[in-house]
Structure prediction request, 652 residues.
Amino acid sequence: MNGRVPLARKNLFQDRRRASLAVTGVAASLVLVLVLEGIFAGAMQQVSAYMRGSPADVFVAQEGVRTMHMTQSALPPSAVDAVASVEGVAWAEGLRYTNSIVDSGRGQRITYVLGYDVATGRGGPRRLAAGRPPGRGDALVDEAVAEELDIELDDTVTIMGTDFRVSGTSVDGTNIVNTTVYVRTEDFERLRGDNVAYVLVGAEPGVEPDRLARRIQTAVTGTTAQTRGEFARQEASVVRDMVADVMLIMTVIGFLTALAVIGLTLFTATLGKLREYGIVKALGAPPGRLAATVVGQAAWSVALGLLVAVAAAASLGAAIGALTPNVVVLIQPSAVLRTGTGAVIVGALGALLPLRRVLRADPATAFRRAS
Amino acid sequence: MSEIPSAVVVERLSKSFGHGDLAVHAVRDVDLRVVGGEVVLIMGPSGSGKTTLLLMLGAMLRPTSGSVVIDGIDLATAPERELPTLRARHLGFVFQDFNLLSALSARENVELACNLGGTTGSKARDRADHLLERVGLAHRTEFRPDQLSGGEKQRVAIARALANNPSVLLADEPTANLDSSHGREIGRLLRQLAEEDGRSVIMVSHDERLREVADRTLWLEDGLLREILGLATDPVCGMSVERDTSLHLQSEGEEWWFCSDACRADFALNPDRYASAGRSG
Prediction:
């Protein structure tokens, strides 16, 4: 405060109950924004977790297909060899994929079914949580869904209308939308034919994945090739597009609530001190000093509200994650920065009306009797 | 006194509210000179224009005409944006209701005034401590206004008024909310500050006790200011009235002065009742 008496802070915290209410109110509305953003970020991370955990540098799909969610891709088995022959490709492996339902008899979940080569493990899960890779007639289910649907190792589940024995559980395969089940390529082909959905491609050392993707797309007609990162981004964007409007509405509601809380708190605090502002003006405070006091109170409310909101959102996120393993709440620094920026704008707007009253406070009130 | 330069020079100061037939002339052609170290008490009935005069002296109200020169600066013509700084640096205010900021300690109240005058940090703190010590409140620096007595609050207010070492102190009813003992203490303190620092003190008050500490007492009525020699108390309403110009009445060998015909008539109907409430003169 440049060695000045911190009038803004002193005024705000003189009535601690009111200050607590203000900070709590701001924090509550910002928590809403942060948690929603956290759920959104978590969902986007989860939905693209398979791609990001894959050893493949390039994903090749049927022409025009850029995601796994909400699409179908079908390539002839010969596409794998065609891709493998492209210069710069170290390895190519077909990945079978379809949408289905996993049914434990105690519950169901929409699922991606991935048929992969257990020998290489390249199309399989990033890691097993328990059990062993699938043998014939076996399936891996995600640990979160195993818990949700009460599935134990060696239980039988129904996938694609066929019974599979659960040989193990995998990680990072469940999100807010669906889960992932892994079976052997042979079992998948038996039920769905030998078409591959995607070709996973490893680049030779020194070969740029994006350059290789372009080369594959040119060399193998009827395909769309994307780097792992691009494929993950495209997948995440599907979720983003689906919930963007809802997110926007909820975020606006959150900020409007914060605006109302800050505005109301500052306004009542200012009205209660209008005479004192008049006195400070009489003593020689220039308009800038009075404005700084009101803005300072808004800044304190917003800063403390944001701090409390971040702590509360992190705790809430952990609690949500513990109670519902399918939902990951990811509080990212960028979201905190964005919410903080929004809160600063909201604080500034909330300070406008009280500021107007303070600047118009009459110094002559100092000479009038206090009521 | 004419040889000592005046700290306050007021010439033909007038303030009217409204226009034409509806105009109210709150202050009319007031001339006033106050030298350094002088204590001037301005008295007058309610609605006489005292507060209007004080607001103009305090650079919070623009006069309709005339000038208010303090430390050589004419407040009547100073640019609006410079008035806050002029108030902070050249004037000290003492109010009837003390007007301390409730969220701040005694020290912070004084320190804030130092800040407004441009002194910050440890210099402001040291200055605040020094002034509070000077008014006898060295042991109360951390106390908030609600923890202080009325007399203590007014001492803090006086310390605050001295924050930027102004040449003029303006006091509005400085003893009105104090008992007689504390009222006298505050009066003496203001007198002392005028004498020791060569500061001009202008007080507006109904409190006759302050006449004891004033070098001059002026009477403001209907916007006109004049010097008075004798005041009396209306036995009916308790208001101070000027002996030279007020209505008066002889009763049982004593002379009584009144603010109005109504008070004089009430007194005449039952002199014993009012005479027992107060002595004449």
Summary: The first strand of chain A starts at residue 58 and ends at 62. The CA atoms of residues 24 and 305 of chain A lie 6 Å apart.
